[in-house]
Each structure stands twice: as structure tokens, then as C-alpha cells.
């Protein structure tokens, strides 16, 4: 992790803490020092993020100026700024649009409680949506240069990997962009879940909130389903990342990966996809919207993921491959040599 990345991560965490304190203040109806602390932390976090970003930009400016490529610096910088703004605006718009609560959900409350709860949830929604938009914008900014490279790439036919049948350009350009886009989509879904989850906690002590809590549970299930669908795609494409890892005497796909891990990754991806569909259906079908049932579905999916992707391949590697590793890995060593000679 670079120093700039560490600073951005630290101030990002501070921003989350500031928002959490702000939400607690709004929920508890406190003011004074608590409200001041949340505002102070928020200002420090925003200032820190701006300083970290500007410091990195200035360092790049000095470097590109020194080597005589100032135009490249401006192209990179403007592309990243445009991507940040576009990503943040789109993320905020989506989170704001899909986390709106109809007035009917406040029907069980008296007028004062409904008005106060609505205002608290509105500010909670704004604060969390802004934080989510910032992180999505940062992700889009980091992805912008990879996306430009992928758009301008010339497909390479010099070498095709023998495992998945993709060219080198797929792994250097397409694969990183797809992973980045999945991360951005996951960030938007997590932002929506955070808004609904915080709203659920803040509405838990208001009399007559049964309809509101039920509506929030349905929306939380919806966002969880969307996040699981994104995770299913992420699990599926994670098998391409096996070509970049070292496993025993082989760099890339090994015997364990080919025989056990890749098939189990596909099975796991299908399982996560089905789990996501269940959560989505639960957001529309009251009979499925049972917290215990959904909890069991999520727990079984998580345990299955750990066993299928990590546990079983580790056992196969230990008890099947290790006793005769060189013989079993010989075909995959040949793949390494062929790729090196290309």
C-alpha cells in the first residue's frame, strides 16, 4: 500500500466515523459536543481526502513535467477527475432514487413522530449517500485509465492461454476493467444497504413503526439480493485470477485449480446467484421475508463458499497432489514454459 493510498484509506475511515456519530446524534436528539464532534471529524476527513488527492496530483505533475510529458499528465488527470465526478453523481443519484420511502410507511405514527422520523431518515439518507458516492467516485477515478486502455487496446493473438482460451489482452485489459466495474456496482449496492440499515436502526424506537420497519426490511432484502448477484459474477470471474497466483511449484493454474478449484468456483457462483434470487424474491414475497429463513440461507451460502473455494481444494492439494507433486504438476509446468517462450 502506498503512502497516498494509506492516507486516503485513513481519512475515508474517519469520514465513516463522522457520519456514524452524526447519525447517532440525530437518532438520540443530542446536540452540543456530540454534534460538534461529528461536524469537526467530517471537516477533517474531507480536508484530508482533498489534501491526499491534491498531493498525489501535484507529485504526478512534477514527474511528468520533468520527463517532458506534461500533456500526458493533463490527459490522465482530467480523465480521472471526470470519472470521479461522473461516478459520484451517478452513485448518489442511484442510491437516492432507490432508497426513497413512500409516505404510506409512516401511516402508523402520529403526525409529530412521522415528521421527525422522516426528517431524521432524510438526513441519514443524504449523509450516507454522499459517503457512498465519494467512494464510488474514487473507484471510478482509479478505473478510468484502465478503461481508456481497454477501449484503445489492440487484441493480441500471439498467445492464448490453454486453460480458459483467452488472449493476453483479455487479462491485461478486459479482466481488470470488469473487476473494477463490479466493485463500483457493489459500492452502490452497499451504499443502499447502509442507508436502509441505518434507517432501520433509527426507526426502531418510534411507536407505530411496524409498517416502516417492514418496508425497510423488504428494501434491505432487495439490496442484499442485488449485492449477492454482483458477488456471484465476481466469484465466477475470480477463476481467471488463478493465472496470476503461485501455487506450489507452478505459477498460475495448477492441478488443484484445474481439477477441483475451478469446477467448485463455478458451483459456488451458481449457489451465490440462487441465494441472491431468494433475497430478491423475499423483498416482493412476504412469505419468504422471514429473517430467520433469510439468515439461514445467507449462513449456508457463506459456509458453502468457504468450504468449496478454500477448504476442499486445500485438502486435495495436501492429500492428493503433495505426495506426487512433480508428476501431477508436469503438464502445468509445461504451460508455464510455453507462456515464457511466447
From TrEMBL:
<feature type="transmembrane region" description="Helical">
    <location>
        <begin position="263"/>
        <end position="281"/>
    </location>
</feature>
<dbReference type="GO" id="GO:0016020">
    <property type="term" value="C:membrane"/>
</dbReference>
<keyword id="KW-0472">Membrane</keyword>
<keyword id="KW-1003">Cell membrane</keyword>
<feature type="transmembrane region" description="Helical">
    <location>
        <begin position="293"/>
        <end position="316"/>
    </location>
</feature>
<dbReference type="InterPro" id="IPR005372">
    <property type="entry name" value="UPF0182"/>
</dbReference>
<keyword id="KW-1133">Transmembrane helix</keyword>
<dbReference type="GO" id="GO:0005576">
    <property type="term" value="C:extracellular region"/>
</dbReference>
<feature type="transmembrane region" description="Helical">
    <location>
        <begin position="123"/>
        <end position="148"/>
    </location>
</feature>
<keyword id="KW-0812">Transmembrane</keyword>
<feature type="transmembrane region" description="Helical">
    <location>
        <begin position="32"/>
        <end position="58"/>
    </location>
</feature>
<dbReference type="Pfam" id="PF03699">
    <property type="entry name" value="UPF0182"/>
</dbReference>
<feature type="transmembrane region" description="Helical">
    <location>
        <begin position="222"/>
        <end position="243"/>
    </location>
</feature>
<feature type="transmembrane region" description="Helical">
    <location>
        <begin position="78"/>
        <end position="102"/>
    </location>
</feature>
<protein>
    <submittedName>
        <fullName>Uncharacterized protein</fullName>
    </submittedName>
</protein>
<feature type="transmembrane region" description="Helical">
    <location>
        <begin position="168"/>
        <end position="201"/>
    </location>
</feature>
<feature type="transmembrane region" description="Helical">
    <location>
        <begin position="6"/>
        <end position="25"/>
    </location>
</feature>
Amino acid at each position: 500500500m502506498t503512502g497516498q493510498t494509506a492516507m486516503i484509506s485513513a481519512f475515508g475511515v474517519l469520514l465513516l466515523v463522522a457520519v456514524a456519530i452524526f447519525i447517532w446524534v440525530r437518532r438520540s436528539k443530542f446536540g452540543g459536543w456530540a454534534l460538534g464532534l461529528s461536524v469537526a471529524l467530517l471537516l477533517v476527513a474531507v480536508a484530508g481526502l482533498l489534501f491526499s488527492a491534491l498531493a498525489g496530483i501535484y507529485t504526478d505533475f512534477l514527474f511528468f513535467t520533468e520527463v517532458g510529458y506534461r500533456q500526458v499528465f493533463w490527459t490522465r488527470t482530467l480523465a480521472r477527475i471526470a470519472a470521479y465526478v461522473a461516478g459520484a453523481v451517478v452513485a448518489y443519484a442511484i442510491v437516492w432514487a432507490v432508497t426513497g420511502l413512500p409516505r404510506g410507511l409512516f401511516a402508523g405514527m402520529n403526525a409529530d413522530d412521522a415528521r421527525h422520523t422522516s426528517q431524521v431518515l432524510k438526513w441519514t439518507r443524504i449523509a450516507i449517500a454522499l459517503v457512498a458516492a465519494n467512494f464510488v467516485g474514487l473507484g471510478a477515478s482509479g478505473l478510468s485509465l484502465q478503461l481508456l486502455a481497454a477501449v484503445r487496446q489492440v487484441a493480441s493473438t500471439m498467445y492464448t492461454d490453454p486453460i480458459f482460451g483467452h488472449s493476453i489482452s483479455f487479462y491485461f485489459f478486459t479482466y481488470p476493467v470488469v473487476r473494477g466495474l463490479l466493485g463500483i456496482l457493489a459500492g452502490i449496492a452497499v451504499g443502499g444497504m447502509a442507508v436502509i440499515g441505518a434507517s432501520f436502526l433509527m426507526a426502531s424506537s418510534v411507536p407505530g413503526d411496524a409498517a416502516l420497519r417492514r418496508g425497510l426490511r423488504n428494501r434491505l432484502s432487495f439490496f442484499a439480493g442485488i449485492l449477492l448477484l454482483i458477488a456471484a459474477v465476481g466469484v465466477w470471474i475470480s477463476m481467471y485470477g488463478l493465472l496470476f497466483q503461485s501455487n506450489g511449484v507452478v505459477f498460475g493454474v495448477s492441478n488443484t485449480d484445474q481439477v477441483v478449484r475451478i469446477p467448485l468456483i463455478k458451483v459456488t457462483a451458481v449457489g451465490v446467484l440462487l441465494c441472491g434470487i431468494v433475497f430478491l424474491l423475499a423483498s416482493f414475497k412476504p412469505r419468504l421475508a422471514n429473517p430467520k429463513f433469510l439468515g439461514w440461507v445467507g449462513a449456508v451460502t457463506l459456509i458453502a463458499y468457504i468450504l468449496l473455494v478454500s477448504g476442499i481444494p486445500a485438502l486435495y492439494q495436501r492429500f492428493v497432489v503433495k505426495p506426487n507433486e512433480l508428476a501431477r504438476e508436469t503438464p502445468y509446468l509445461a504451460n508455464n514454459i510455453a507462456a515464457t517462450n511466447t
